Amino acid sequence: MGKKVLVTGVLLASCPVLVTAALAPSPWLFAAAVLVSYAAEPVLPKAAADRLSRVHLGVTVRFLAREVAAVLLLARLGLPFVLLAGGLFVFHAMRATQTGLALCLHRWHHLRPVESRNLQVALPEAPPARLLGQRGTRLLCFDVPPVVLAAVAGLTGETWPAVAGIAVTLTAMTVVTVVLGLRLRGAAPVADRRRVIHLVDERVRAYDPEVILYFSGAANAVYQASMWLPVLEALPRRSIVVLRERPLFTALAPTSLPVLCIPSAVDMMNFRGLDSARVALFAANVGNNIHMLRVPGVVSVFVGHGDSDKEASFNPYTKVYDQVWVAGPAGRDRYRRAGVGVRDEVIVEVGRPQLAGISEKGPQTRSVLYAPTWEGWTDDLFHSSVAAMGPHLVDALLAEGVRVVYKPHPLTGHRSMTVRRAHGAIMARLRREHPDAGTVVLGPEPSLYDCFNDADLLISDISSVVADFTASGKPYVVTNVAARDRAEFVTRYPSAGAAYLLSEDLRELPEILAQLSKGPGEDELAEARRALRAHLLGDGEPMARFAAAVEDAYEQGLMKQVL
C-alpha cells in the first residue's frame, strides 16, 4: 500500500513541477522532474493506474502533459520550438495510424468467422503478437527521446538535441507503420469472411467428419472437453471438435483431431462442412447446444464430464438429447431416482474410458490427495469443503507426517470470496511453509489421473472425482460438511457407499489414517470398494464399450438421415 501511494504521489506531483519548471524557466529542475516522472510510469501499480484513469488522469493525459511542458520550456528559453511541437503532432498522427493498422490486422487474423486447427487451411499466418501489440497507449513511450532530449536542449542552449529526438521517434514509428502496412496488404485473403468460411469448409468436407465433440462455455471449463480428446483420438470413426467461444480455442488441450471454433450462431447453423457427421457428443449442458441439437440426421449424445451424485449429473435439461451415456448402473439409477424425464431406454452404460491408465499401486511415500470440488452456484448444497475445513485439514495431515497433494477444481473460488481466501491459505501453507511435504497442482498438468497414481488415499467432496478414483481400488474419504449421519449421507450420495466420511471437526481423521497402515486393499472398506467400483463404472473394457456405443449411435444417425 505504501509503495502504491508513494509512486502515485510522485507521478502526480511531477506534472505541475514540470510545468512550473518550464515556465520559470528552470532547465535543471525540468530535467530532474522529467526523469523521475518517466521512471515512475512503469512501476505504477495497475490498480492505481486504473483509479487515475477514472478521474481523467490516465496515461495519455500524463504523457501529453510532459510533451506540452517540453515545448513550453523551449519557448520560454527562446529556443526554436516549432519543430518539436510539429514533430510531436506528427508522432500522434502516426500513432493513430499505426493503432488503426494493428487493430485491423488483429481483427482479420484473430477474429475470423471460423478458426481451425489440424486442417491445413491455406491462409496467411498472423503477424507476431509483439508487432500487433504495438498500438494505442503502448506507443506513448516513443515520446521519451524528444522530451528527454528537449531537457538536454534546455541545459545546453542548443536546439539540435530536441530535433534529434524527434527524428529518432518518427523514424522508429515510420518503420513499424510500413511493416504493418505490408502485413495488411498480405493479409487481404483473411479480410473476406466468405472466403475464410469457404476455405475452412472445403477442408472439413475433405476430412468428412463422422463424430462431433461439441463444446461451449468459459475457458476455465475447457477441461470438460479436453478429457474426451484422447478417447476420440482412439476411435475408428473420424472425429472433429467444434467449439463456440474464441478463448476455448487456445485453452483446449493439445490434440491430433481437427478443431473448429465457430463463434457466430449464424455461421454455425450455415456451416455445411459438418453435414457428414451422424453423432454429436455434448460434454456440458449449455444454451449454445441448441445450434447443434437442431441439426437433423445427427444423433445427439450427452456424455458429460464425469459421473457424480451432484445435481448436475441428473439435470432435467438432459432429456433434450437422443441418448445419455453414463459410466455404469449407478448413472442409470440416478436418473431413475431423480424422475427428471430421461427415459431409461435412452441411457447407455459405456464405462469411463479415460480411466485406463489408473494404477492400483500407490507411491513410496505415504501421500494423500486432497481434491475438493468448487463451491457451486449456491451455498445450501454444501458442495465444497475448502472453506469449511480445507486449511485445517491440510494442517492436520501435515502434522501426521503425510505428504499432501492439493488438486482443487479449476473453478474453486469462482463465486465465493470465502472459498477463494481458504484456497489461498492452503496454497500458502503448502508452497511457503511446507514446500517439502506438500504439492499444489493447478492447471492441466499433471492431470487428475496422474495425481490418483501419486496417492495412497483420496480426500474429496461429492463429485465425479470420487467415482473415478474407485477405479484405483484405493481407499477414499468424502467430506461430510453438512454433518449428516452415514445412512442418510450414503442414501443421498451412493458413490460414498464405500467411503470413509470426514466431519468438519476432523474427528475421524486419525482412524482413517490408521487404516492406511494395514497395507493396500486390507482396510475395512476394501471389499465394499470392489463391489461399488463395478456399480459406478460398469464391467468390461471401457474403450471397447464406448466405441461400440459410438457405432450404434452412428447407425441410428444414418437411419435418421434416411427418414
From TrEMBL:
<keyword id="KW-1133">Transmembrane helix</keyword>
<dbReference type="Pfam" id="PF04464">
    <property type="entry name" value="Glyphos_transf"/>
</dbReference>
<dbReference type="InterPro" id="IPR043148">
    <property type="entry name" value="TagF_C"/>
</dbReference>
<dbReference type="GO" id="GO:0016020">
    <property type="term" value="C:membrane"/>
</dbReference>
<dbReference type="GO" id="GO:0047355">
    <property type="term" value="F:CDP-glycerol glycerophosphotransferase activity"/>
</dbReference>
<keyword id="KW-0812">Transmembrane</keyword>
<protein>
    <recommendedName>
        <fullName>CDP-glycerol glycerophosphotransferase</fullName>
    </recommendedName>
</protein>
<dbReference type="InterPro" id="IPR007554">
    <property type="entry name" value="Glycerophosphate_synth"/>
</dbReference>
<keyword id="KW-0472">Membrane</keyword>
<feature type="transmembrane region" description="Helical">
    <location>
        <begin position="68"/>
        <end position="91"/>
    </location>
</feature>
<feature type="transmembrane region" description="Helical">
    <location>
        <begin position="162"/>
        <end position="184"/>
    </location>
</feature>
